[in-house]
Amino acid sequence: MVKSITIFTTNTCAYCAMVKKWLDKKGLGYEVVNLDEKPERQAEALALSGALTVPVTVVTKHDDSKEVVVGFNLAKLAPAVA
Amino acid sequence: MADDPTRTSAPIHDVVMIGAGPAALSAAIYTTREDIDTVLYERGVVGGLAAVTDWIDNYPGFPQGISGLEYADKLREQAERFGAQIELGEVMRIQANVKGITDEGKYKRLETTDGEVLAKAVLIATGSDYKKIGVPGEQEFYAHGVHYCATCDGAFYRDKRLVVVGGGNSAVQEAMFLTKFATHIDLLVRSDHMRASEILQQELKEKHVDKITVHFNTTTDEIVGADGKVQKVIGANKTTGEKVEFETDGVFIFVGLKPNTEFLAGTDIELDEIGLIKAKDNLETSVPGVFVAGDVRSGATMQIASATGDGATAALYIREYLDGHSRQFGE
Ligand SMILES: Cc1cc2nc3c(=O)[nH]c(=O)nc-3n(C[C@H](O)[C@H](O)[C@H](O)COP(=O)(O)OP(=O)(O)OC[C@H]3O[C@@H](n4cnc5c(N)ncnc54)[C@H](O)[C@@H]3O)c2cc1C
To answer: Nearest to residue B251, comparing CAs of B220, B297, B294?
Structure first.
């Protein structure tokens, strides 16, 4: 079960818009961390994903375990939020 | 004789469109307005390359220009308003004409990552993807200092140095976009001139001369780094033969595009020498009932305005084809 979802995005990232739209359709809420507005949180996104790219979606489960999905990747995102 | 499609549970549609870039979305606006049952399969981002473009200045009707993301969103909204379902999956290969179109009978069969689907007509609008240069370090540092999408990954290079490789419209446009973040950009151009349009070259000279240094006749031979971080690009000056090095935190590569037609291997759909799909005046390919639109069409001018024009043209000819199809098959 999902406790919370955080998406690291930027203003211009088209794949981020896809992730958000997909979560909207599923009726799942999420917090957005816009790295254009909060560049100080870039290191956090990098540490979580291991890559210099967005979107990075962090799904926190009820047992506080986390799943990190890099990019718009439904094969990983769908089971992560199931 | 054709397979009986009813033996499978594959869904049947009037038109299946492969891709959801400007060409297919425009075609879908036309077909769905006329109640032609239409499904688009898109493996990446709705809006295609237009969605990952920072700013579009030359699309008619937007005097101030429009951001690629906003344009893509408007196109999607308009297509969805009339009922196009945008399913997410990748069409792995199209089986429309493996044994010839008459053998297939009424339908083209498409195999997708979401299973099989049958269509009376198909529109291929798969565009193209960025080419790789194929040098040491390119694969190793992918997404760790080597990138192909400035609007996706540029923000990680605030106050950093960058190298951009390429001399066409995309390279120049994206280098200018990256000046929002980077302190300095070395633009490496292989030949002695740029392929980018005059207007972009002018903008580069007038507005970005302090941040972007253009290096002509410069090859990109190796991307070097340590501890998962890019440190420099090694190349050569083609005129002098001397080795050149550029210290950098990241490399963005825009050296041209490769048509997305690999999935057509083994079909009767005719391609030109660079892999683009040949079409008749009505945008039908060498396989009846299979149409092509946008950047992936042989002879396309690779612009959003022409891709949307192709989409509209293809849609109108698809409607004509479907009329003939129902006369022939009685539906
Ligand atoms: C950096 C950059 C800047 C640009 N700037 C401009 C500009 O300012 N003005 C302008 O007019 N043009 C510009 N262009 C060109 C413009 O983006 C293209 O001409 C236009 O997007 C072509 O549309 P399309 O629908 O033919 O293809 P695309 O936009 O490439 O869309 C094709 C879609 O098909 C999908 N696809 C591919 N294969 C499959 C498959 N097997 N299964 C499912 N889906 C698949 C892809 O994921 C993609 O979304 C720019 C291009 C780039 C790269």
So the answer is: B220
